[in-house]
Amino acid sequence: MWLNQTRFYVLAFLTASWLSNAAHADEARPCFVVAHRGLLLDAPENTLANFRACLELRLGFELDVQRSRDGHLVCVHDTTVDRTTDGTGRVSQLTLKALKSLDAGSWFNASFRAERIPTLDEVFKLLGHYRESPVLIAVDFKGDDAQIERDVVALADRHDVLDHLLMIGRTIQAPEVRKRLRLANPKTHVATVANNPAEFPTALKDPDSDWVYVRYVPSADEVSAVHAKGRRMFIAGSTVAGLQHENWRVVVERGMDAILTDYSIELSRQIRSTPR
C-alpha cells in the first residue's frame, strides 16, 4: 500500500514538473516576425538599407537569391532588373559589375537614390553584426541552379549565421533541393510545405526538413504535433500577408514559430502588446 502510494506521488510530481516545464517552454518560444522582402512598404526591397532597418527593429526578413552571369550570389526577386532598378535585362545575363552599377532605390523613392543590389555576402556580413538578435531570415532560392544551395550554406557557415536562416522558396516543394541542403550541412534549417490540412501529415513526416511551412491557419493540434516532433512551424500566404489581426492573434496563441507578412511592423507591435 505504502509503496503504491509512493509511486503514485512520484508519478504525479514528475507529470506536474513536465507539464510546468512544457508550459514555460511554450511561453519562452519566440514567434519570429519575418518581413516579406524586408520592409517592402517602407524601403526598396532586397536592399541593405531595407535589411538594416529590419535588423535594427529586431525583425527578420525574407530575401531572394540568384546568381549573376559571372557566378556571384545576389539578392533580387525578379528574373530581370527592370522593375526594381534603372536598368534592364535578366539577372543571370548581367555581371556583378553591371548589376552594381544600377540604381536599386530611386524607383521606390528619390531618398533611396544610389542604393545598390546587394550580394548575399554583404547581407550575411550585415547579419553577422546582429548575430545575437532574435531574428529569422527566410532564404528564397530563384532559378534552377543546382549548386546554389551548397554555395549559400557554405557562405552562411563562413559568416557564422547559418542558424539564423530558414530555407524556403523552391525548397519547400522540391525533395531534391531539401536533400542537397542537408548534404551541404545537416544543421541547415529546411522547410517543407503543407498547402492545406490534407498535406499536413506528409509534410510532418518529411525526412529532410525541420520546419513545416503552412499556407493556411493551422489547428492548435497541428501546431502541437509539429512541436512534439521537435520541429517548428512557419506560416505565409494570403491568411497572414495583409493586415489580418485576427488571424495573427490566432496563430500566435496556438504557438506559431514564425509569420511572414507584408506588415511586419504592425504584427510585431501586436505581438508585443499581447505577450504569449
Topology:
Blueprint: H1 2-28, E1 32-35, H2 48-56, E2 60-67, E3 73-75, H3 96-100, H4 120-128, E4 137-141, H5 148-159, E5 165-169, H6 175-184, E6 191-194, H7 200-205, E7 211-214, H8 220-228, E8 232-235, H9 245-253, E9 258-261, H10 264-273
Parallel strand pairs: 1-2, 1-9, 2-4, 4-5, 6-7, 7-8, 8-9
Antiparallel strand pairs: 2-3
Helix pairs in contact: 2-4, 4-5, 5-6
Roughly what is the average pLDDT, rounded to an integer? 91
Most strands sheet: 9 strands, mixed
Question: What's the helical proportion of residues?
Answer: 25-40%
Structural class: alpha/beta
Strand content of the residues, in percent?
A: 5-15%
CATH class of the largest domain: Alpha Beta
CATH architecture of the largest domain: Alpha-Beta Barrel
Please characterize this protein's 3D structure:
The chain is α/β, with parallel strands linked by helices. The chain has two domains: 1-29; 31-273, TIM Barrel, CATH 3.20.20. 38% of the residues lie in helices and 15% in strands. The chain has helices at 2-28, 48-56, 96-100, 120-128, 148-159, 175-184, 200-205, 220-228, 245-253, 264-273, and strands at residues 32-35, 60-67, 73-75, 137-141, 165-169, 191-194, 211-214, 232-235, 258-261. Strands 1, 2, 3, 4, 5, 6, 7, 8 and 9 form a nine-stranded mixed sheet that branches. α2 (48-56) links the parallel β1 and β2 (60-67). α2 runs parallel beside α4 (120-128), α4 (120-128) packs parallel to α5 and α5 packs parallel to α6. The longest helix is centred in the N-terminal third of the chain and has 27 residues, at 2-28. The protein starts with a helix and ends with a helix.
